[in-house]
Amino acid sequence: MSALPKDKPQRKEKRMGKAPSEGGHGHKAKDVTSRPKDSISTVSYMDELGHHDDNPRMAVAMENTYRMGPDKRFSVPALTAILKDVLTSYLQEEKYEAEWARQMTKTLCEVIRARVKELGIPRYKTVILVHIGQLTGQGMQISSRCLWDAANDTFASYSLKNSSLFGVANVFCVYFE
């Protein structure tokens, strides 16, 4: 009769996936590696920490070029001409509206970026900033800072005013070694 109560817990442990301890002596060791049957893992496999994309990006293998400077630099007059043409054609006859200005800054950045890429100068990263504001007699100062290599990096800026708004566009071209 003493064997019956002992067998009942052992049968329960077998159903739960636990094995009796090897040491015996009536003590039952807790099996750390087993988990309850209703537990579901919610962690998915990731190659690198911090990347949670559904579409993993393939690493592009490129050979070293050992170039310390660009083959061709951006021409500041060419960049200024692009900025002048885009701002004049899009903003010359417009009236300021807040919602319109928010959408127009995005559009102008995309148009300027496309025109700068048409110049076909490789190994440069471009940063385009466009500001549109209402003319109500206020003053405004715009400044920017970055790590700059005066030998290879360049920028251009252009501003336009009409009766109700102003527009300022800046293009920064930073050489990517």
TrEMBL record:
InterPro entries: Tctex-1-like, Tctex-1-like_sf. One of its GO terms (biological process) is microtubule-based movement. One of its GO terms (cellular component) is cytoplasmic dynein complex. Residues 1-10, 29-38 have a biased composition (Basic and acidic residues). Residues 1-40 are annotated as: Disordered. GO terms for molecular function: dynein intermediate chain binding. Gene3D superfamilies: Tctex-1. PANTHER family: DYNEIN LIGHT CHAIN TCTEX-TYPE 5, T-COMPLEX-ASSOCIATED-TESTIS-EXPRESSED 1/ DYNEIN LIGHT CHAIN. Belongs to the dynein light chain Tctex-type family. This is Tctex1 domain containing 1. The lineage of its organism: Eukaryota, Metazoa, Chordata, Craniata, Vertebrata.
